[in-house]
Design brief:
This protein has helices at residues 2-23, 35-67, 73-93, 113-141, 146-176, 181-190, 194-204, 213-236, 244-263. It has 264 residues and is mainly alpha-helical. It has one domain. Helix 1 runs antiparallel to helix 7 (194-204) and helix 3 crosses helix 8. The model has no long low-confidence stretch (mean pLDDT 86).
């Protein structure tokens, strides 16, 4: 477990660092980045998460089940649905405000807009941390297989790359809400702290949840794809219709697919 724990800490630490670097853009841009770049970045993040959900989570979940003599699609489909329901439940019971929106979602609350903004991004970082941690836990369960560790590192790299614009997506709106650049940066960076927390928790629990690993892998996939369809793709097409958001999605998918296949 020690080796997997170190790798997971390093992998999710990298994703957290990339969130912090993205949040650091608040020191360079006082106001919002141009809508075109925003669409590209958000679309890219969506594409990375789609590819990661398929290559790094759903396919391994199916392969794990079939290797154990089970029916591959059952835990893949079941965990996928549970992941979607989990994120839908969080969106319903917790008040939050998505960047670029004026009206908070969820139950009414007296919380500040800055708190609601940070909560929205933080909630959606949970499945990303789970995905990276579960990937390293799977490598551990296979006798610390170097090929699986390489695939896990590819996943961490892809998640980290797409976390860069996510960090900016929280720090810049916080700055526009009136917070100082320093506080906006800190809050934006801290929105990604749930990734190492949940990633490490997945590795620590790996010994006792091994039979449930296919379910958990597909759970993380369902949760991530819910974020993509519910939030990222609509945001990538804000404003007048254009192809930049779609190209961002395709580019992100391509990069994550190449990372997973080349390193895996």
């Amino acid at each position: 477990m020690g080796q997997a724990l170190l790798w997971a800490a390093g992998g999710t630490g990298f994703t957290f660092l990339m969130t912090a670097l993205g949040a650091g853009l608040v020191f360079l841009f006082r106001k919002q980045i141009s809508l075109t770049f925003q669409k590209i970045f958000i679309g890219f993040a969506a594409g990375v998460m789609i590819a990661a959900s398929v290559w790094s989570l759903l396919i391994p979940a199916i392969e794990e089940t079939e290797a154990a003599g089970g029916i591959g699609w059952i835990p893949a489909a079941g965990g996928f649905v549970l992941g979607i329901l989990f994120l839908m439940s969080l969106d319903t019971i917790l008040p939050h405000l998505h960047p670029g929106s004026k009206t908070p979602e969820g139950p009414s609350s007296e919380w500040k807009r800055t708190t609601l903004l940070m909560l929205a991004v933080t909630l959606h970082n949970i499945p990303e941390g789970m995905a990276v941690g579960l990937s390293f836990a799977l490598a551990q369960q296979h006798g610390n297989d170097p090929a699986l560790y390489a695939s896990s590192m590819a996943l961490a790299a892809g998640m980290g790359i797409q976390n860069f614009p996510e960090g900016a997506a929280i720090s810049l709106p916080l700055r526009r809400e009136g917070l100082s650049a320093g506080r906006s940066f800190i809050y934006g960076a801290l929105s990604g702290i749930v990734e190492p927390i949940f990633g490490i928790l997945m590795v620590l629990a790996a010994g006792s949840i091994q039979p449930l690993m296919p379910w958990l892998l597909s759970f993380a996939a369902g949760a991530m794809l819910y974020v993509v369809v519910e939030e990222l793709i609509p945001e990538a097409h804000l404003g007048e219709h254009s192809n930049v958001g779609s190209l961002g999605v395709m580019g992100g998918f391509l990069v994550m697919m190449i990372l997973d296949v080349a390193l895996g």
